[in-house]
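Weekly structure sync, notes
Attendees: PL, DS, HV (note-taker this week)

Item 1: Type I ketosynthase
DS walked through the input record. Source organism listed as Streptomyces sp. MY01. Sequence as pasted into the shared doc:
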Amino acid sequence: LDPQQRLLLELAVEALDDGGMDAGRLAGTDGAVFIGCSSKDYGTLQGARPESGNAYTISGMAGGNAANRISHLLDWHGQSVTVDTACSSALTAVHQACEHLRTRRSGTALAGGINILLDPHVYSGFSGAAMLSPSGRCRSFSADADGYVRAEGGGLLLLKPLAAARADGDRVHAVIVASGTNNDGRTAGLALPNGEAQSALLRSVYGDAGIEADRVVYLEAHGTGT
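Item 1 (cont.): predicted structure, written out as tokens:
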């Protein structure tokens, strides 16, 4: 079993506990799961030693089961999707969950991401592409930036429409006013950003939220500076 799947099960239970929700009462409902996961390290390592596999190996390393295993555990019948958009996978999963709830296709959703680093060959590839910081630090938006540093982690959000959460007396930590995604299109290189496209996305989301950019007081950005 990919340790990412195991950790996601723990995070799902913790998210429900934090929200004060009884998992048993949600069983059989239209709860949805959206998971961002781009790391396939465990499957790669398993493939290098096929003799170590068994009847559970395929399901244990299948990317789709990062989400499906949670739905199976909780007996949720809503959409269950694993999203891979590289570094933006978790945020894309949250965006898709929000859109899913806004269209009332589900009343509850778990969304987030997971990333565990197991395969050293990936480091070799990123290093060869001069993406990793030789100084071992991310210096986003700085003229001294010399690359980025990879990291592990996982997190899930338990999402509901605000009116429903208030009506049910749920603990509300924050409100997602708006979200959005787009693509850089053609740039000088597949992994190189497009500042104009990213600016257009920000303006679009600010417009959807009805918020002026100068009212934003805190930003959390991608470690590479995008």
